[in-house]
Amino acid sequence: MEEPAAFERLVYKNASNFHYMKICLVLENGSRNIEAAQFKQLIVSGLRQLYGEVGAAFPFDLLKFDPGTLTGILRVYNSGLVKLWSALTLIGSYQNELCAVRVTQVSPFLLALSGNSRELELDQASPTGEKLLLT
Amino acid sequence: MSPELEKCSRSLLVCEKSNFTKEKSRYDIHVSKHYFNYKVSIVIPECASLPASIAGVINSFNSYYRVRDLPIYKLLEEEFLEKVVKKGQFYALSYNTRIDEDNTIAFLPSGQLILSVDKDTYEQLGLEGKPSQYKHRKVLRYVVTIDLTDKLMSPGAKRYQRLITSLKEWVPIKCDLMISSKMTAAEEDGGVLQNLLSQYSFEEHRPTLHTHTLKEMPCPSLHSTDRHGDEKSCDPHHFLEWLGAVSMDISSDNEASSFLSTYVCPDPQSLMSHGLLCTVTGFLIPEDIYSLLLELRRYFDEPKFTSWLSMTVHGFVDSPVSWGTTEHGFLKSGENFYNFVCFRNQDYWLHMATGSHDGCPP
What we know:
Chain A: Belongs to the eukaryotic/archaeal RNase P protein component 2 family. The structure holds two protein chains of two kinds. Chain A is α+β, with helices and mostly antiparallel strands. Chain A has three helices and six strands, in the order ββαββαββα. Helix content of chain A is about 25%, strand content about 30%. Chain A starts with 7 loop residues before the first strand and ends with a helix. Chain B has an eight-stranded antiparallel beta sheet. Chain B has a seven-stranded antiparallel beta sheet with strand order 1-15-14-13-2-12-11, with helices on both faces. Chain B starts with 11 loop residues before the first strand and ends in an 8-residue tail after the last strand.
């Protein structure tokens, strides 16, 4: 058996290199088939439009994309966060169709994106179904 | 672009390393002071299905209630106050209220009531509070903290009367609440909570359990003595990133040249033939989480293939407090979570993280 570890405490401030964003694409005429690569291309072209060829040349990752809900998770270096966020805000059309990008969550911890309490939906389980009546 | 724009708002990650068997380790306090928990997720490498003992603990988690349009002063009436709130282990948090927009209310098990309200409500309430720490030029949010166990707050006292008048007549705040009480589960409150709930529309909810088996994926190697990630382990940020990737089913077998993503599992790594990801969501109380942690520690009583397992607990992003009575805000995402990595020899690592509008974890 190894020796028990000695107590140690460390505080990291702003030590994460990345920020993570959960975003969702909303199309004017409802959803349609978009692949992950097309989605990333849309963001890249949005960046290029706003910041030009050189200004937009920074790496970011599309960690995950769900074609069903058009929701994606991005990873970007801290230094590129403001640029990426602003470009996302200004994306207004996809293949001549009006669209918008909604930013649901932004965090320096990817783990935080997996536990968003704003997603807690207690109404679905409601036995009275009041929510349905309201809508 | 201005270099100022390349900076990000502050975030904190506190890492502790110790051993469960040491008397001085404070892990139990960190768990019990994180009052409002939304989700627990467990990752156990080289484990195919949820062990019965752990499933048993999860099944015994307390139920919680969601009650609609409850006037807050009802929870401050004498009988309720004496038999439920002051007895401890009473947790309540307003549901579907956003800490950066709405009035948010919380009852802490220590017998404190916290009202995080906007400026208008604060001025109408006429109760003594403090401006929120996280203000921007103008103060638009105030936090009122009332210690209900204080003698001056006992029913009949002047300050108590003032509190009731302000919440009953001046600003009759009503909201949906999530309530959990250990006393009610043990029926030690004489049915007072049930009586109150029955006057309003309410539902009882059970925490929701999901299990998922992970297959053939890379997994970071961890060594309890090397928490900084110098040689034998990966560093805490990379480990937490990997946990996030596992929780959200993000693939980590990318190549450096991939167009979509360059995310890879951190080094040193090994191949995990299978693993277990188990999540529980709801309005979870610290007592339940503590009993789960105790059970997870017992997992290593019998020989196992893995040398570590992990438990992550996410707090409510819209709670007015994170740990203890430390004020909590939202800004970009309101994250407040902690993570235990338990090792075979009862060593543990504890990671506690908060975002910009939050104090330093304890």
